[in-house]
Every structure is written in C-alpha cells, then in structure tokens.
Write a structure and sequence with these properties.
The protein is α/β, with parallel strands linked by helices. It has a single domain, classed as Metallo-beta-lactamase, Chain A (4-Layer Sandwich). Strands 1-2-3-4-5-6-7 form a 7-stranded mixed β-sheet. It has a 5-stranded mixed β-sheet with strand order 8-9-10-11-14. The chain has a two-stranded antiparallel ribbon with strand order 12-13. A hairpin with a 2-residue loop joins strand 8 and strand 9. Helix 6 runs antiparallel to helix 7. The radius of gyration is 16 Å and the shape is globular. The structure holds zinc ion (2 copies). One zinc ion binds next to helix 2.
Length: 224
C-alpha cells in the first residue's frame, strides 16, 4: 500500500492538500500531486512502500490549482506516466496559458508546467474511473468516480472541513454559482467513500451531508 491506507488499493498522501494512490490489477493511478515541485510527499510515500514512480500508469489531476499540480512534472519525468486533466484546465497545466495565482501564494509556489497527454471531458473513462465534470471551483474541475466501488475523488469540488462537507475555498472559485450547481451533479452519484482534495476521507451519510450543503449553499456562498 502506498500512502496511508484508506481501504483496499487506496492510499492517502495526506497534507494541507491530499494526493491519493489507487491501485488495481490494471494500473496504479496517482490522483493529484501535492504543492511540492519535487513532489516530496508523494516520493516519501512511495519510498516508504518500497515502490518506484515507474509503476504509476496515470497522473490524474482534479484541477489546475498549484496546490494540486505542482508535483506533476517531477513525477511525470520519472514515471513517464500519462497526465490527464479536463480540457478547460489543460492549457494552464501545460503552460499554454498562465494561471492567475494569488500574490501571497506566488511567494511560495512556483509550479512547473507538464504536458497533458490525455485531455478529459465529462463522461470519459480513464482507467477504472468515470470523469465527472463539476465546474465552478475551476472551470475544468473534475471528480474521478469509481462506480463499482462507489469511491469518489472529489478534488476541491467538495472538501471536508471540521467534520462536514463544504465547498473548497469558495473565495478562490472561478465561478461560485457553477460550483454550487455542481453539487447537484455530485449528489446524483452513489458514493460510499469520498476522498476530498482537502480534509479527511468521508464515509458517513454522504448523501445527507450533500443535501445539507446544497440547502445552505445559496445563502452561505451566493450572497453578495
Ligand atoms: Zn483548488
Ligand atoms: Zn486545493
């Protein structure tokens, strides 16, 4: 098991931002890559497990934000894995467009661009996952859904904070009203294990928690 064991074949590389490793008979998938340009937390997790980056088949990016993608170039160079992200975020990941990074973050984070070998659209299949486009946090935000195992890697479309699900960093959202609408898309999925970009894995009453978030979201996030 690479990373902190969550369940069979699923490891969490925990930190301010989470990366995850999903392994099945067909491949090893790294979901997000942490904010370290050298992907240090990812490297440590692999080293501890006695595994090398060469076993990674795909690097799946939930969205273009630097806290999730900074390690992608380092991992890709060493693993030669395919990097996949949504078409709306791909130009910012591969350097065709410059992302708007908050000034404070720019002091600490110097992301490296990485070629995107697989550009994703809603409904695509990547490895064992369905690509679920949940725009708002960024316009190319996606969640990766494993329908047989009912596992959802939610990126920042929904995150865990203080024991509850909430929107990821609403202040940084590209389009907050789209982010709120995308909660309905997540709600339609049958999820037993939700693995967020920030916070801890969630198993308890995911549908109920989403319902409560959807109910309070217009008042909490859309008010001017
Ligand atoms: Zn983000
Ligand atoms: Zn984030």
């Amino acid at each position: 098991m690479i990373g902190e064991p969550v369940e069979e074949g699923v490891g969490r590389i925990a930190g301010f931002v989470n990366a995850y490793v999903f392994e099945d008979a067909k491949g090893t998938y790294l979901i997000d890559t942490t904010m370290s340009r050298k992907a240090k937390p990812v490297r440590k997790a692999f080293e501890r497990a006695g595994a090398s980056f060469s076993k990674i088949s795909s690097i799946l990016l939930t969205h273009q934000h630097v806290d999730h993608i900074s390690g992608a170039a380092a991992v890709q160079e060493e693993s030669h894995a395919i990097v996949a992200c949504h078409s709306a975020d791909a130009p910012f990941v591969d350097g065709h467009q410059t992302p708007r990074i908050p000034a404070i973050l720019r002091l600490f984070v110097h992301p490296r661009v990485v070629p995107v070998a697989r550009v994703l659209e809603n409904g695509d299949t990547v490895g064992p996952f369905q690509v679920v486009h949940v725009p708002g946090h960024t316009l190319g935000e996606v969640a990766f859904y494993h329908p047989e195992r009912k596992i959802l890697f939610s990126g920042d479309s929904v995150v865990e904070r203080r024991g509850a699900l909430t929107l990821g960093a609403p202040g940084f959202a590209a389009d907050i009203s789209k982010a709120v609408d995308s909660l309905q898309v997540l709600r339609k999925l049958d999820v037993e294990l939700l693995l967020p970009g920030h916070g801890v894995p969630v198993r308890k009453d995911i549908a109920g928690q989403l319902d409560r978030l959807i109910a309070r979201a217009p008042k909490d996030f859309l008010k001017r």
